[in-house]
Amino acid sequence: MNKPTTGNPSPWQRLRNLSPARIALGRSGISLPTNAQLNFQAAHAQARDAVHLPFEAAGLSDQLAKHGRASLVLHSAASDRHNFLLRPDLGRRLSDASVDLLCKYRSGNPGGCELAIVVADGLSALAVHRHALPLLKCLEPQIQAEGWSQSPVVLVSQGRVAVADEIAERLGARMAIILIGERPGLSSPDSLGVYFTYAPRVGLTDAYRNCISNVRSEGLSYPMASHRLLFLMREACRRKLSGIALKDETEVPQMTNTARGENFLLG
């Protein structure tokens, strides 16, 4: 029996093979094919699960200890996930108990430090569980080579980006880095964001921060994220600023198709 013909392949298929974006899905009548609809629902469920997944701060603290890094486990002023999602302002502040713990640590280290590294769940604890430790392991040798003194890694449950400003200010840190789970997308439930601030203090807006986003296996690699972050930190120390006045001018290798010698968009 002859096999049915499939017809001409979609001209979008080559582009679809290079991107997780939902393009060239086909159709069944006026609707999506069943597989495309089921894949969409599965991706939506993964994104929702990433938002509500509990942050395993204790487990991450143990992993850091195995690599010789001390840590402090703190909590934001948002008592639970429900309050965190409804009250973003609470995620930007520390709980009273966490403030007391930081003050106790600072009393034994009055000189402060040059760099405070914060890890917070944000909107995707999944991203932190997968990517925070590998990125820190990639960053650590470079930070040590620069000679910057560090506080223990601060792990914050129910934390937003701005919580790093309060932490760094209380620790007397000149710079702050926060690794945080980004808002999940339908093709990226585990995207990690990195925010850097020079001279952090409570009340700063996002205009004073630099962001490196989409750190994950399918996005920005750990070495490239580290390369960009180290450039920003060096320039911030030289120019005494961060945010919109500090541009990422790192040189990114041009991506070419060496096997075919062509640009698939122009071929």
Q: Which term fits the overall shape?
A: globular
Low-confidence stretches: 254-267
CATH architecture: 3-Layer(aba) Sandwich
- In CATH, the homologous superfamily goes by the name Ethanolamine ammonia-lyase light chain (EutC)
SSE succession: HHHEHHHEHEHEEEH
Strands, total number:
6
Largest sheet: 6 strands, mixed
Task: Work out the count of structural domains.
Answer: 1
Strand order of the largest sheet: 1-3-2-4-5-6
CATH topology: Rossmann fold
Helix share bin: 25-40%
Number of helices: 9
Mean pLDDT over all positions: 88
Question: What is the highest CATH level, the class?
Answer: Alpha Beta
> What class do helices, strands and sheet pairing give?
alpha/beta
Distance between the termini: 37 Å
Strand content is 15-25%
**What is the C-alpha radius of gyration, as a whole number of Å?**
22 Å
Structure characterization notes:
The chain is of the alpha/beta class. It has a single domain, classed as Rossmann fold. Helices cover 40% and strands 15% of the residues. The chain contains nine helices and six strands. It has helices at residues 13-17, 34-52, 57-66, 81-86, 88-91, 96-108, 125-146, 163-171, 222-239; strands spanning 71-75, 113-120, 153-157, 173-181, 192-198, 209-215. The chain has a six-stranded mixed sheet, with helices on both faces. The chain is globular, with a radius of gyration of 22 Å.
